[in-house]
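Risk mitigation, structural track. In case the binding assays with iron/sulfur cluster fail to produce interpretable data, a predicted complex structure has been prepared as a fallback.
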Amino acid sequence: MVDPSGFEAFWFCAYTPLEILDAAGFTPRRLLGDKDGLEEADSYLHPAFCPYVRACLVEGLKNPTAHAAIFVNACDGMRRLHDAWKRLCGSDFIHLLDFPRRNDIHGLRTFQQSLSLLIDELEKFTGKRITLEDLRNAVNLRKEVRRHFHDLSQGSPGSERLKLAQKAQQLDPEEFLKLRAEKPWQAEGIPLVITGNLLNPSGLVALVEEHGVLLVGSDLCNGERPFMVEGEATGDTREELISSLAEQYLRRRHCARMSDAKRRHNQLLHLIREREARGVIYASLKFCDSYIYDYPLAEKFLGNEGIPLLRLESDYQDGHAGQLSTRIEAFVEMLRG
Ligand code: SF4
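Fallback model:
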């Protein structure tokens, strides 16, 4: 049995139920990977593989401290990261959580069972029962983190909002809640929304902004997406609260690994209109099958709505992102004209 206080629980995918890790007494921290050490991952994972996954493995190889690691069975990349991590990174506790692809009653039942299984495993590991009160406190704490993120990010440009979102995912919630707004933002430029999986704020995102773009929305899993939650998880019993939490995760804004592309594209359109954006940058990490399959659908949908769209790809480190300058410049000029 392990005392979880101060024990870090590493997580990787935005579908990780942080409330449960909080309630178990862990300190959850999203790993964003070692972008500069990507080549070191080549001995274990093929180079034509999600660079975020490869960067996370490198970070894990360099981090021999005691930890728990929670993976979500969300895509092939995440499954392979779990397999490699299990063999190479010496976790004290490791768990692969099933997350359904469908947001329907069957998906809900599957996810409720997944959450209960995770809770059972955590209770066995710590020897401590996760009570209704633990869960309620954790739900309230995460609600506060989301509220604080929205307060602090008011009016900030996309790269800053992304950095803040990453802090909210990496810091202990109590630490994040102590952060104060640094300065009032006076950002300007052509308003665009960026959508995709997970991007490097200092790489591609910063490059886009250098071309006179004001990113008014970051529909990314290391951006605003996990903070746009509808409704709150409630319940009078532990089981009711777990069930409500499962529902809340399934109702969230989703990434392209979910089957309901229509709902996702409509939410994106709503975000574009609400933020008065003049177009969309559709940017994703290389080798992400979900986004490769999604792009033609998104292009058609947004095209029918008359929304201009630029497709970009990132290798996460973005050392050569400058090569994309001409395309970004042409897109911005077209919008200006
Ligand atoms: S893009 Fe989707 S599947 Fe991939 S890490 Fe983010 S939330 Fe998880």
